[in-house]
Amino acid sequence: MAQAVSHGHPSNGHAAHSHDEHHEHEHESLKTFGFWLFLITDCILFATLFATYVVLRGNTNGGPTPEELFQMPGIIAETFILLTSSFTSGLAVLAMNAGKKKGLIGWLGVTALLGAAFITLEIAEFVHMVGEGATIGTSAFLSGFFTLVGTHGLHVSLGLVWMLGLILQLRKRGITPVTKRKVEVLSLYWHFLDVVWIFVFTVVYLMGVM
User: What's the pTM value of the predicted model, to 2 decimals?
Assistant: First the structure.
């Protein structure tokens, strides 16, 4: 009888462990689903901002026009930097899937540096424009411009804070189901911002100077 009881404990422990793993997997899946909902609402937000900008872009109120304000070499540099950061975030995911913690942290670090360089250039662009007398209150065109481009820049800044926090967590805990889900979600978010920027570059800048 004692033998039968002792044989039962490992199977009970294994069942409990399997149940915990299943519960954790469901919890992570639910969080991923929540992120997808957030991304959908973000798509609606940016679609609204793009539509507003397209309506307002011709209303310069006698102020500076896109052709006079936009400095394309700097904007092309911003675009190249952000596209490269999207590539390095993909390399971070590949390193994670290969179980390489150092590679994962390293590529996330490179992505964060590129993101910071992008934000620095964008702030410099805004400062230059304000110095030229082009502020958010100068015209409807500039109101639409600063709101759209500034919202994207704010999203990139939030992504950087998120990325730095995740790097610290990875250093402490390593690659776990929780940190893995966070890296995958962050990479998806970063790619989303990259796609939005391609639309910004085309609709705002290229169409603005053409």
Answer: 0.86
